[in-house]
Amino acid sequence: MTAATPRNSGATGNESSSNPARPRVPRGRSRLPSVSVLLGALSIASFWVSGLGFILGVSAVVCGALATSRSGVADDEPASLRALLGVVAGVAGITVSATALFPVLAYL
Q1: Does residue 107 lie within any of the structural domains?
Q2: N or C: which end of the chain has fewer CB within 10 A?
Q3: What mean pLDDT, rounded, does the chain reach?
């Protein structure tokens, strides 16, 4: 007779081993502030592409505004500062993109 080896049925509560490729975000934490900063930085970097910097800047402002309205972000000071930085970077991207876009519109 062979000894039966116990199998892990997943009932132990260790759910992180069932899907190791997907990182878990702790409950109550939002990715919107980080997305807002990323979109704001991309809007500043891509101001020279017609309209792309403007669209990314607006998206950064929207994500930052949504992030600040969530209670989980409002209670977390670093997350709220990231959301504010995303809004500021988005506004800067919109300003730089609009400044670069207006002279081009004269030739269209």
Answers
A1: no
A2: N
A3: 82
For tokens 């991207």, what's the residue?
Answer: 93
What would the pLDDT profile of 6-40 be if each residue is shown by its tens digit?
Answer: 665 555 555 555 666 766 555 557 899 999 999 99
DSSP state letter for 58: H
State which residues form the domain around 96: 32-101
State the DSSP code for 6: P
Max intra-chain CA distance, the chain: 87
Cβ 61 vs Cβ 91: under 8 Å: yes
Q: Which two tokens stand for residue 92?
A: 């800067």
Q: Is the pLDDT of residue 1 over 60?
A: no
- 73 with 35: CB under 8 angstroms? no
pLDDT of 43 > 90? The answer is yes
Number of domains comprising the chain: 1
Is residue 16 included in any domain, yes or no? no
